[in-house]
TrEMBL record:
The keyword Metal-binding applies. It comes from Bradyrhizobium xenonodulans. It comes from the Bacteria. The keyword Nuclease applies. This is Ribonuclease J. SUPFAM superfamilies: Metallo-hydrolase/oxidoreductase. Pfam families: Lactamase_B, RMMBL, RNase_J_b_CASP, RNase_J_C. Residues 21-219 form the Metallo-beta-lactamase domain. Keywords: Cytoplasm, Exonuclease, Hydrolase, Metal-binding, Nuclease, RNA-binding, Zinc. CDD domains: RNaseJ_MBL-fold (cd07714).
Length: 556
């Protein structure tokens, strides 16, 4: 008798880390499964550890191999950490994509703004709607979050139903969009849920996330009280916050000037999809300088310290249209994502030096998270009563705390997994049954590299210790035809005794060449290796670091 189909789950990104979300669900047996992918996001490079790397994406080699069995990709919402890798990686998969209207429109605008973006069709599913994707029936359940049209996905199969929460919170007054659909989630619990795959981002924080409506009130008070110009920076995708800022500007009789391409793009999509109906028209940056100081509010990109975004340019006093002076205010209506603290701190310090007043969530309620705190996680468990809970979207501590909370709330089975773990969800006892390939891809300029790429590894070494370049011209008889050329990049000019490094390295090259037997001098590879070792050793002796050394041998 044939074995019944199994339902399996594997995270390929977004577990043990914040961002780069990609989950896959499989239905079938070990020889043949149909696959469904949920989200395909990025995380951002860190100049200190990954110099020159802009974006990090999940390794999709497993899905490429299973491409003929990949039924589709479903998007929970349109944040970069959930959909930012699609333009680069979809050409390797070419599967159907399903999203609700706002996510699809924002994705289309993103493609239009990107040079040479492939044509990527998206099937629009109504909020609250259902769609058959191969053997999976996927239901889009509205949840509150910091972008319109966020959805938990109820994935219905013959084996049972799984709830993939995506990013969510409980906000009874969300300003834009529908609140989290408690009624439908309770119905799923009543019908029986085999697994809950849940957001852990705020699992370490007690209580509940405050509402967007409370933030809106605070912003009105601050903008009304401001004397000079006001700039507000927030995540461009947080349309509810943009609407709150617009309401505050109107209450204070100020014009809103939108500054930054990402902000312009979201405003355009939000107007097209009806999320800014009734909100006054915004102005372009050219009019900023012509408006009285107490009649203008600049809505800026750059809340995370991005070097090319509007706020960084304003802070460095090199924005062509927008300036801030003593007595003006900047409201950071955002939370600094871990890893961006230095960049944001640098912008704040530059603004303070210009006499600008800085307002952050440390001193006023100008930002709330879009993720559930511990009481909200307990509510979700109570509503849905899953047989199994798997924490995702979080670092090790977040996953651990979410798991502990779930056990205390009486969830029968709780599994903490890592990227690449293949988990059987049903039928029968759940558990980790295998592993699928997982890893990272680095976007380096316009090239995708894997994490072991020579370029990335070498650049990290060069960032730490510079590089030495040596060129040697040899005669056919194995003699130096001319003085060696030495070029040191990123290496101190002098050692502690004040001797020039150029001279130290030059002497080491000459003495190494002259000290070698004739036969070795006539072998370009052997000569280059001997010189490379000598140069690294002498620099290490005088500096304490071993830089990469490139030696070019020319026979004349």
């Amino acid at each position: 008798m044939a074995k019944p189909d199994e339902l399996v789950f594997a995270p390929l990104g977004g577990v043990g880390e914040i961002g780069m979300n990609l989950s896959i669900y499989g239905l079938g047996n070990r020889q043949q499964r149909s696959w469904l992918a949920v989200d395909l996001g990025v995380s951002f490079g860190d100049e200190e550890h990954l110099p020159g790397i802009d974006l990090i994406m999940p390794d999709i080699s497993f899905l490429e191999k299973e491409r003929k069995n990949l039924m589709g990709l479903v998007l929970t919402h349109a944040h970069e950490d959930h959909f930012g890798a699609i333009i680069d990686l979809w050409p390797k998969l070419k599967c159907p994509i399903y999203a609700t209207q706002f996510s699809a429109a924002l994705f289309e605008a993103k493609c239009a703004a990107e040079r040479n973006a492939p044509k990527i069709p998206v099937t629009v599913v109504p909020s609250g709607g259902r769609v058959d994707i191969g053997p999976f029936n996927v239901e889009f359940i509205p949840v509150a979050h910091s972008i319109p049209e966020s959805h938990a996905l109820a994935i219905h199969t013959d084996v049972g139903t799984v709830l993939h929460t995506g990013d969510w919170k409980i906000d009874p007054t969300p300003i834009i969009g529908r609140p989290t659909d408690e009624k439908r989630l309770r119905e799923l619990g009543d019908a029986g849920l085999i697994a809950l795959i849940g957001d852990s981002t705020n699992a370490v924080r007690d209580g509940r996330s405050p509402s967007e409506a409370e933030v809106a009130k605070t912003i009105v008070e601050l903008v009304k009280a401001a004397k000079g110009r006001v700039a507000v920076t927030t995540f461009a995708s947080n349309v509810a916050r943009l609407k709150a800022v617009a309401a505050a500007a109107r209450a204070a009789d100020r014009e809103v000037v939108v500054v930054g391409r990402a902000m312009e793009r979201v405003v355009q999509v939000a107007r097209e999809t009806g999320y800014l109906d009734g909100v006054q028209n915004f102005r372009s940056p050219e009019v900023y300088g012509h408006l009285p100081q107490d009649k203008v509010l600049a809505l800026c990109t750059g809340s995370q310290g991005e070097p090319r975004a509007a706020l960084a340019r304003i802070a460095n006093d090199d924005h062509p249209e927008i300036t801030l002076n003593r007595g003006d205010s900047v409201i950071f209506s955002s939370r600094t994502i871990p890893g961006n603290e230095k960049a944001v701190g640098s912008i704040i310090n530059n603004l303070v030096l210009q006499g600008v007043e800085i307002i952050t969530d440390r001193d006023h309620l100008v930002h709330v998270s879009g993720h559930p705190r511990r009481d909200e996680l307990r509510d979700m468990i109570a509503w849905t009563r899953p047989q199994l809970l798997i924490p995702v979207h979080g670092e090790a501590l977040h996953l651990h705390e979410h798991a502990k909370l779930a056990r205390a709330a009486g969830v029968p089975r709780v599994l903490v997994v890592r990227n690449g773990d293949l988990v059987k969800l049903g039928p029968g006892d759940p558990g980790i049954v295998g592993e699928v390939p997982s890893g990272r891809l680095y976007k380096d300029g316009n090239i995708l590299e894997d994490s072991k790429s020579r370029a990335v590894v070498e650049r990290r070494r060069m960032a730490f210790s510079g590089c030495a370049f040596v060129a040697i011209a040899m005669t056919a008889q194995g003699e130096l035809a001319d003085d060696p050329e030495v070029d040191l990049v990123g290496i101190p000019e002098k050692n502690r005794a004040g001797e020039p490094f150029d001279d130290i390295v030059f002497d080491a090259v000459v003495s190494t060449v002259e000290g070698l037997p004739k036969a070795r001098r006539r072998d370009p590879d052997a000569l280059a290796e001997s010189v490379r070792r000598a140069v690294r050793a002498v620099i290490n002796e005088h500096w304490g670091k071993k830089p990469p050394c490139l030696v070019h041998v020319l026979t004349v």
